[in-house]
Amino acid sequence: MTATTVEAFPRRARRWPLWLSSRAFARFLTAATPSLYVVLLLIVPVVLIALYSFGLKTNPAAGSATGFSTANWSDFLTGAGNPFRGRFFTSLIVTLAVSCIAVLGAYPLAYFLAFVARRHRYTILLIILAPFFTSYLLRVVAWEVILNNDGVINSLLWTLHLRAHGHAITWLIYSKFSVALVLFYAWVPFVALPIFVVLDNLDRRLLDASHDLGATRLTTFFRVTLPLSLPGVIAGFVFVLIPTTGEFIAPLLVGGPSSQLFGNSIQAFFSDTPDWNYGSVLAITLVVVVVILLAIFGRFINTDLTEQAAT
Amino acid sequence: MKEMNRRELIAAGAALGGAALLAGCGSSGSTSSSSAKTTPLSKRPDISKEPGHLSILEWGGYEAGGTPAQTSGMWAGTPYTKEFGKHSITYTYIVNDDQSLSKAANGGPFDIVHPCNEMLPSFVKEGLVQPWDTSLLPSFKNLNPFLVKRGQINGQQYMIPWDWGYASLLYRSDKIDPGDATGWELAWNPKYKGKVSLWNGAGSDMEVAALKLGYTKPGEMDNMTPAQIANAKNALIQQKPLNKFYWSSEYQQMQPAFKAGDIWIAYTWQDAYVSMKAAKLQVNYLNPSQGKLSWFCGFVLGSQTKNFFHAHKYVESFINHHACVQMTNLFYYGTADATTKAGEIQNPALAKQLTIGNPEALLASDVHLQSYQPNRSQYELAWQEVLAA
């Protein structure tokens, strides 16, 4: 009598190679999609721009020969009186200033939403964010209408007889003021968001404990609320700093000749001249700066309030 | 499942980035620019087999009549839109000559481009255009031979001339001291700080600076030496603080600002002078002591167009007699149509004042025709340095 073995799970014939069902392949697939996204949409474009910056690719319309060259880099980094280098540092200062002012303007808004509005905070937040569902370009153009010499503000002043008709406040438009104002307006709600999130999630018992221990409201704010909200403040600061570094639309539309930013130079090289090689030098410089800024500020962003409260 | 750690991710990214770098190095730095091959008409597909939708690189305001984009009141192009539909054309816009070449080379392919004559050699050199078949343009025989000749390269008709005119400073005669309005130096006069607006156009601004500096020999402004380019650049940097803004769009920026009194002095073409007079402003169009700039523009045919016959019909709808007369009466630009008579111009005195009767006036002794700039890349870099200064 022959013993027979009954298999509980009879084997089926394998329809695909073993490696396809391996864990390594599954891990590869999981990582492939986001990696492909990062490579195709971030690394490859940056690499291409880098190639242009070293002359390894050229715009045919420029009529210049293709070949490795550091001449443009040398001119930008060390050329005597290079105006683009000067504009780079000026833009950085403007960007830092606008970011700081945006944070200072956004914090009270976030505080109001988190501690005052309470029940209605999300409704008010939605109302504040509603204009930002429209095109950024349209919102900047709208500011032209408001700030122009015969725009809303000047017309109102004439109507109220606060200024003689026809005598406009000319520095409202095409000036550093108009650029800063538009950038502030564009970014305050987005800066307020992360601050609001942190404040909204703040453990209120900490504030109660501070009051119970005799601290005034002001002391509680500076010794408890503000330190705990710093991750949100830094996140908001980074939110506005990074995109403003490459900003060019607001200066282009409402800025004057002396209020253009580094982003305008990059935009002009690519759209108004065929010299993509020099424009790429400026673009790569901006990328490097943004990466450095992210590396510096990234380490300060920590939203783990439990850990912070424990320390 | 084991997580991919940061080191592995960075290594993978570097490997992929390096692969992209090698692929980029290996590829040709220049796009293949097709040579201007002239295909016999018999070998071209019939017009009914062409895609039919034209892609045109154009200045704002010159869209074909009948299209939704045309708001200047221009009639030219109306026969085309009546035959092929008002939605049969897509316009991409240029705001200065430098953009025309850059966008044509990288944003196309375009069926038709409307550049000015100084850009023509570059368009041909880059293989962006092909010669027109003038036998398909019934109105071609009416065009002024002087302009027709200047649209030829190596005996082939690459540009169909259409419009010509001048560039100078438009100024408010009720705001500007007449003694100051003698030459291009008016734009440098600190008395009018914040009331000036030059065009954001590299080539033209460098030419203005060249004339202001006295580089007035024939062709000198377009063939400046490196030292002269540096001088022109420095002059423009000196002038920069006087500008309210550099305008890019004539109809969206410059003309509204001029009408509102935000600016009193602007680099412009003569159509703005006509518009401001129509708006009842007291204006003059400067005849600089150094001479004013002149230009002519026209249509070029894309080398990769699949709408060969449609493109010819489009241009014919612009160069026919009625279209040319109407354009002149609208903008007070000169027309390439040699059959236009003085009696057809609504304001003959204005036409005479602007000397738009004869295109050979473009080469008068007090006029500098904007021409090909062999050092254009240096002009453009210098202008960018002015903007960044």
Q: How much helical structure, as a percent, in the residues of chain B?
A: 25-40%
Radius of gyration of chain A from CA coordinates? 28 Å
Quaternary structure classification: heterodimer
CATH hierarchy, class of chain A: Mainly Alpha
Secondary structure: number of strands of chain B: 13
Q: What series of H and E elements makes up the topology of chain A?
A: HHHHHHHHHHHHH
Q: What is the average of the pLDDT values of chain B?
A: 89
Number of helices of chain A: 13
Give the largest chain-chain interface (CB within 8 Å): A-B, 51 and 51 residues
What's this entry about, in short?
The complex is a heterodimer of chains A (311) and B (389). By secondary structure, chain A is mostly helical. Helices cover 68% and strands 0% of the residues of chain A.
Please give a handful of descriptors for the protein shown.
heterodimer; A: 311 residues; mainly alpha; MetI-like fold; 68% helix; 0% strand; extended; disordered C terminus; B: 389 residues; alpha/beta; D-Maltodextrin-Binding Protein, domain 2; eleven-stranded mixed β-sheet; two-stranded antiparallel ribbon; 13 strands
Blueprint of the fold:
The complex is a heterodimer of chains A (311) and B (389).
Chain A: H1 23-53, H2 71-78, H3 83-117, H4 121-129, H5 136-147, H6 152-159, H7 176-200, H8 204-212, H9 217-245, H10 249-254, H11 262-271, H12 276-298, H13 305-310
Chain B: H1 6-26, E1 54-59, H2 78-84, E2 89-94, H3 97-106, E3 112-113, H4 120-125, E4 129-130, H5 145-150, E5 152-153, E6 156-157, E7 159-172, E8 196-197, H6 202-212, H7 226-239, H8 250-260, E9 265-269, H9 270-278, E10 283-285, E11 292-302, H10 308-319, H11 321-331, E12 334-335, H12 348-353, E13 367-369, H13 376-388
Parallel strand pairs in B: 1-2, 1-3, 8-9, 11-13
Antiparallel strand pairs in B: 3-11, 4-11, 5-6, 7-9, 7-10, 7-11, 7-12
Helix pairs in contact in B: 6-7, 6-13, 7-13
